[in-house]
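Notes from the 1:1 (GR / supervisor)

We went over the backlog. Supervisor wanted to see one worked example end to end before approving the batch request, so GR pasted a single chain during the call. The sequence is below; no edits were made to it. Supervisor asked that the structure be written out right there so they could see what the output format looks like.
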Amino acid sequence: MSTTAARDPVRAGRVNPHGDRGGARWSHPTDALLRSVRRLCVTAFGRRIDVWVAAVRPDAHPDPDMPVLRAFLPEGELRRLSETDHDDARVEYAAGRLLVRCVLGERLRTAPARLRIGEEPGGRPRLERGPGGRPTDDFNLSHSGGRLALSVSRHLRVGVDIERVDRTRPLEALARRYYTADEQTLLNAHAGTEAYAECWYRIWTTKEAHAKARGVGVRALAEPLDGHGTRWRRHPIPVAPGFAGSVVALHPSCPPYPSHPFVPHRKLGSDDE
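Structure output shown during the call:
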């Protein structure tokens, strides 16, 4: 993959709740819950992937009655928000849905609340055919430690994973369970050094992003990551100091491998949905 700087169309476009472009006086909807929104452009197999990275505002207190959420989220998502009790989970859910719908709404020139977002048979979120919806558009969302990352591409299946680096996690035990022999060899070359955790999270975020692109969940994390460069490609995401991130794209000719039911990654301590 290669990386290029990009002008953020979400912020540059100043989308209003009806999907039209407004004047400079219009503050962007994501400002209500997010800050430091930036976009990265990478390429894989000759096609573009847009990756948005953002931080949740520390003063964010999302409520289903917030005008911006009522304008941009459909009733089903507002209902789920109202049923979410944990404060951090409410903030991450609302911020993630707002970012997804703002980005896809601008991309497809459709009112964000009208976009139909469903699930694949295994539970992976997808954009459904409908107003503005195109089966060739794919997206994936990750959140951890008050940060969000959203990857979007056309004609490529993509997966993204970001993680706050936590050296108190049982890294060695998780590596023995989920890393292949080759991955453990690479990791053990850094044993006893600060680079150990960095290498561990680089491998982990790659495996999670790959599994999310395939739509197979954590049960596939122990499988070898064969075919890099031909079947799939990975690019690091510069999230923030103390974070690791990866985005993975599958080759257009390689279908996903739904041999495992989708299991939310939080089962293993990640913050992803």
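Supervisor's comment: The radius of gyration is 18 Å.
Batch request approved.
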